[in-house]
Amino acid sequence: MSDSSPTRVAIACQGGGSHTAFTAGVLKKLFREWDNGYELVGISGTSGGAFNALAAWYGLVTADETRAVELLDALWADLSASDPTDRFLNEFVVGLSRFGSTGAPAFEVSPYQIPGPELGKKEIRETLERHIDFEEVPGLCRTDAPELVVGTVNVNAGVFETFTNEAVTPEAVLASAAVPTMFEAVEINDHYHWDGLFSQNPPIDDLMTVGADRKPEELWVIQINPQKREGEPTSLEEIADRRNELSGNISLNQELGVIERVNEWVEEGHLPEDEFTKTEIRRIAMGEAYHCSTKVDRRPSFVDELMELGETRAAEFLSDRRS
To answer: Could you give the C-alpha distances from 126 to 214, 233, 301, in angstroms and in order?
Structure first.
C-alpha cells in the first residue's frame, strides 16, 4: 500500500437468496471498521447480492459508512418474514422447496398462471423504494463515487447483461432477482430479463473495465456458495445442494480466472505496467453448508444467524489483513 494514496478496492457480492443476509453482515462489519487506507471504487451484486450492493452504495454516497450499515439493517428487517401471514407463507415455501429437492413428484405451476409472484415482486419493489430514492441515483453517480453494478441475464439474446450506475432502476434490481420458476421475467429496453444467478454471479468484469485511476488493486469477493465439498453427493438432496452451489460458482471462477491470467501476464512482462495493473483477489467465504431450501427461508432468526456469521467472517478477514 502506498503511503500517499489508499489502496483501491472493489467488492463483489454473490447472489443466493436469503443466504445473502450473510453478505449484509460482512458489509456491516467492513464498514464499521473501514480503514482510510482503502478506497472503495466499486461494488457489484446479483440477486440478493444486488440488494446488498445497492443499499451499501446508496448509504455511502448519500452519507457515510454508518448510514450504509443502517440501510442494510433496515432493508433486511423489511425483507424478513416478520408478520404472521408472511411467516406462514415462508414456512410453506421453504417446505415446498425442501420437498422438491428430494425428487418426489410435486405440483408445479408457471408464475404466469397465478397472481402470487407479481404480488411478491410488488412487495420487493415497495421495500426497495422505501429505503432507496431511485430518482436520486443518477445525480449520485459522481466521478468519485464507487461504480455500482447489478447483474441479470438477457432471456431473449441469451447473454449476460449488467446495469451500472444511473441504469440501476427498481426494474433492474427486480430483474436480477427474478428466479424464473418463481417470478415473471422483467421487461427492460424491449427485452426480458431473469435472475442474475444464471449469469455473472456476481458481476466482475464491469468492476475491472474502468479507467486506470479507478481500477481496483484488490477485489474482495463475498462468496455464498461453498467452493469445495468432501465426498460424493449420493442422495437426491445432496445432489440438488451441490448442483445449486456449482451453478453459482462456475461463472464466478471463470471471471476470476481471467483476472489471474492478466496478473500473470503483467508479472511476466507481457503487458505494460503503465496500462495494466495487477488485481489481488481475496474471498470472504461463508464457510458453512446449508440445505438449498434455506435460500428461500426468511425467518428473522435465520436472517440474524446469517448476519452474525457474516460479521464473524469479516472480522477474521480484517484480522488477517492486519497481521
So the answer is: 33, 40, 23
pLDDT at 116: 65
Domain spanning 7-322: CATH 3.40.1090? yes
Does 288 have pLDDT greater than 70? yes
Burial of 34 (0-12, 13-18, 19+ CB in 10 A): middle
Q: Residue 308: enclosing H or E segment and its boundaries?
A: helix 300-322
Domain boundaries, the chain: 7-322
Question: For 38-74, what is each residue's pLDDT tens digit?
Answer: 999 999 999 999 999 999 999 999 999 999 999 999 9
At residue 188, φ and ψ (nearest 5 deg) are: -140, 130
Alpha-carbon distance 17 to 187, whole Å? Answer: 21
Sign of the dihedral through C-alpha 18, 300, 185, 240: positive
Q: What mean pLDDT do residues 112-141 have?
A: 87
Out of 15-29, 172-186, 244-258, give the one with best mean pLDDT. 15-29
Residue 42: all three cell numbers together = 466499486
Mean pLDDT of the chain: 88
Distance CA 315, CA 30 (A): 8
Interacting residues of 65 by C-beta distance below 8 A, sequence separation 6+: 31, 32, 34, 59
Question: What's the Rg (C-alpha) of the chain?
Answer: 19
